Amino acid sequence: MHIFVNALAASAGGGLTYVRNVVPHLSETGVQATFLINANLRQNLGEWNNIHFMVNQDCDSVPQRFRYEQITIPHLIRQYQADVLLSTGNFALRRSPVSQILLSRNALYTSPDFLRDLRRRKEYKAWAHTRIRAMFAKRSIAWADVTVAPSEAFAAELRRWTGKQVIAIHHGFDRDLFFRSNTPLPAQAEEQLRNARGAVRLLFVSHYNYYRNFETIFRALPILKKRLGSRSLRLFLTCQLRSESNPGDYQAEAAARLIRKLGVENEVVELNMISYELLHHVYSACDVYVTAAYAESFAHPLVEAMASGLPVVASDLAVHREICGEAALYFPRFSPDDLARTILEVVNSADKRRQMSSRGLQASKGFSWSRHVKELISLAESIQFSAK
């Protein structure tokens, strides 16, 4: 079987994590695959048996990518004589020449909170673009032979949204790959982490965007500072709060101003982007992982945090509960008071931290990229057989 993988949308965050982890496990199966990727991703992927990479240099925007996908990719599929198309970027081909699996993983298209957030920020152009993309994402689920979501919670959301059948195949985690590198962190990041020894060290791994709800975390910091008394506090971010330093069109300057207004400039440490193979050093240097996201379809950092032994404090989303179960504590997603109280519940109890760490380590073992790839291949074989 030859699988053609359209991965043009994988440029940052979860999309990048997905392709980087799937490629080696797909190579191990012996299945032949052609990956269509953007130029920036190629250098991160190396060389693999049975895997061919085709680099596209011409799709700098979503409209360009969509036109290229609908017009050019069908010809490429025929040229490479592929048997099945795997579309990884939420949009399917309207007329695929072969059976098509769509991976739908963008929770923003079904999130009322995101649309409200854009209106509150007066980003009406982004609001309109999201609505248009959501329309095509919804139609894509109808165009595909089968749609796959990365969690059961998100699959259920897509079913309600479209009335179509959507199946869940969990994204995975490769412990050996994640912890493999002994390369140290950049000197500046090492120093920033070292200077925080003795402080309560919170971690949030994400580029700046709106739906990860940075602002609720920032608003919780003054409350935490007051309740921690003489103990110092640090929140480590793996991004910088400057718009040009983050992917997408998210405006980070208002978040930076909020930090200054709250008087927590010294408590927020911007590590800048940390490469994936070095992230485990950051997790191991912190005490609690925290996320206030109001929209998610899977959330890879939660699994990474649990595998690193970090207690997790997460916004009360169905996806977060599915991924972490009893290994995390949850709070209402827009409540800084409840977030601060929940963090303190973890920080003030060594027994609770040990219990959460143990449960998290066990929960992280339930996620496997190898199993994910095997289930995808089994699905591809079934729809290829049905098409014949």
The quaternary organization reads as single chain
Alpha-carbon distance between the two ends: 13 Å
For the record, the CATH class of the largest domain is Alpha Beta
Strand content: 15-25%
The name CATH uses for the topology of the largest domain is Rossmann fold
The gross shape turns out to be globular
Number of strands: 13
Content-based structural category: alpha/beta
* Rg over CA atoms: 21 Å
| Order of strands in the sheet with most strands | 3-2-1-4-5-6-7
Number of helices: 17
- Please tell me the overall pLDDT: 93
Largest sheet: 7 strands, parallel
CATH homologous group name of the largest domain = Glycogen Phosphorylase B
Q: What is the total number of structural domains?
A: 2
Percentage of residues in helical conformation = 40-55%
Q: Give, in order, the helices and strands.
A: EHEHEHHEEHHEHEHHEHEHEHEHEHEHHH
Low-confidence runs: none
Topology, element by element:
Layout (H helix, E strand, L loop, with lengths): L1 E5 L6 H17 L2 E7 H4 L8 E6 L5 H10 L1 H7 L4 E4 L11 E5 L8 H9 L3 H20 L2 E4 L2 H11 L3 E3 L6 H4 L8 H8 L5 E5 L9 H15 L4 E5 L15 H10 L5 E3 L8 H6 L3 E4 L8 H8 L4 E4 L2 H7 L3 E4 L4 H12 L2 H15 L4 H19 L1
Parallel strand pairs: 1-2, 1-4, 2-3, 4-5, 5-6, 6-7, 8-9, 8-11, 9-10, 11-12, 12-13
Describe the structure in your own words:
- By secondary structure, the chain is α/β, with parallel strands linked by helices.
- It folds into two domains: 191 residues, Glycogen Phosphorylase B (Rossmann fold, 3-Layer(aba) Sandwich); 185 residues, 3-Layer(aba) Sandwich (Rossmann fold).
- It contains 17 helices and 13 strands.
- The protein has a seven-stranded parallel sheet with strand order 3-2-1-4-5-6-7. Strands 10-9-8-11-12-13 form a six-stranded parallel sheet, with helices on both faces.
- The relative contact order is 0.13.
